[in-house]
Each structure stands twice: as structure tokens, then as C-alpha cells.
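Dear H.,

Thanks for agreeing to be a second pair of eyes. The structure we're designing against is below in C-alpha cell form, covering all 87 positions.
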């Protein structure tokens, strides 16, 4: 699995987010938050980093139909695992 690291401007730490997941596009939306979409398609939801360092967890939330509310899909030890729930 490949990963790209971005620099969080608030904490100056490197933030990995998953890439190369077939059928998904994942892009930074805000510090500690990534947008998950289908390539050239609708936004499916978001992945949010919770905590820092070795204790960081990644929450996944799917947008409900209509895109106003989100449904919590769970919390994961890796950003890749959080992204996999959108497949």
C-alpha cells in the first residue's frame, strides 16, 4: 500500500492518507480531515484523524442521502482501514 504524507499546518506533523484504493479518490479537506469520493463522482464521506501520534485513530463517516447528515461508520487504527469501509 502506498501512502502520501501531507504536512498539517497547525501541528507541523506529517499526516498520512491512503491512496491507490481502487474505486476511491481521497483528498485533504482540512487539517486532519479527508474527503472520500468516487472518481469523478459524488462525495461518499470523510475520514477524520482523532488523536495524535501512536494513539491516533481514524473515524469514517458516510454522507447520508441528500448530503446533509453523516453516519458514523466506526473508528480504525489506520487511515487505510477507515477508507476500506467506503468500498
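And this is the sequence the design step returned. I haven't edited it by hand at all.
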Amino acid at each position: 500500500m502506498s501512502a502520501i504524507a501531507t504536512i498539517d499546518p497547525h501541528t507541523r506533523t506529517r499526516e498520512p492518507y491512503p491512496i491507490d484504493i481502487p474505486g476511491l479518490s481521497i483528498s485533504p479537506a482540512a487539517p486532519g480531515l479527508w474527503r472520500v469520493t468516487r472518481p469523478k463522482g459524488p462525495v461518499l464521506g470523510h475520514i477524520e484523524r482523532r488523536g495524535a501520534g501512536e494513539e491516533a485513530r481514524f473515524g469514517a463517516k458516510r454522507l447520508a442521502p441528500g448530503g446533509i447528515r453523516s453516519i458514523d461508520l466506526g473508528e480504525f487504527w489506520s487511515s487505510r482501514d477507515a477508507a476500506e469501509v467506503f468500498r
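Two observations from my side: The two ends are 16 Å apart (CA to CA). Residues 79-84 form the longest helix (6 residues).

Warmly,
E.
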